Amino acid sequence: MKQIAIFNHKGGVSKTTMTFHLAWMLAGLGKRVMVVDCDPQCNLTGVFIGNIDTDDYPFESATPQKPRNIRDAVRPAFESRPYTITATELHESTLQPGLFLLPGHVGLSEYESQLAVAHELSNTLSALQNIPGALHQAIKLAADHHNIDFALVDMSPSLGAINQNLFMTSDGFILPMAPDLFSSMALRSLARTLPKWGEWGRKAGANTILKEADYPFRPVTPAYLGATVNNFRKRARGGEEAKPTQAFQKWFDRLAEVRDTELFYALEAAKMLLPPEIYAEAHAPTNQFLMEIGSLDGLIATAQELAKPVFAIDLAEDTGFRGTVADSYQTKIEDVRSGFKSGAEKIIALTDRF
User: Fold this and answer.
1) In whole angstroms, what separates CA 309 from the centre of its chain?
2) Domain topology for 2-351
3) Where are the domains of the chain?
4) 66, 98, 109, 276: which is deepest, by most CB within 10 A?
């Protein structure tokens, strides 16, 4: 199982939408994929199952020993329960074979401060030694039980302890962005933050107490798989392939500049880059974006109602769009499908070398 963190501490970058679409495409390419909703807002869980026609949360655990969501999966470690972390029951998609959800829970945020303390003091207080490795243990057990190839972890937009932990126990990471000023600022912030997380992760992985814990902290340095740009307008000029409009192109250029300088140098120093030949062989060079996914327009609302990605919408069967509107949307659907297929193939090629 390859655990991939989907992370940006700036909100509004289509992180959850991208995670769901990418997971669906990977499953369509024959992989067994689990999306893990570690954002206490539970948006990914909502996208996966569509409209919930009940007043009760459908993934509450009936018993502590049979968890049905990520919060209950790690309770044994965080609440010192007299039972161990076990494989979480996953929710399998009825629409896409090989696609599974490890549901989120709003209560996961209750463990944030406790995890932060454990990160700082687990090397001196043995009572905390099982906490830093708990999240990855829960993800790994669920993945092993269901023979999962990829676990895509959707994270909240913050620099808190839960995200730090999930990020530093992943094999790789993807940075989703939007073409705007604040994404450029966020990328600079990540260039400063990720090396600090990397240093902390290496120390935690080498810590004897954490190595001997019931849930050992995973000694791994995550590798940069690429950055994506989402939710922008394209326009075709003179019969050429559609490209970002001039207003968005300015921010594409700004993001690319930060990506190729501050971010690249920071990740290189933190040893978070794969060898250059791996990026080249996967057709995913670091000086290009992993994916560029334009605005999904009105199709996203339809997709969410259907619990499908945009590229899986059948306009004739799923919608009432006809004529020129349908033709325009069909072009959009094919463009989105092409973008995610290319991105998924790059990720498979990159992670085959882990």
Assistant:
1) 15
2) Rossmann fold (3.40.50)
3) 2-351
4) 98
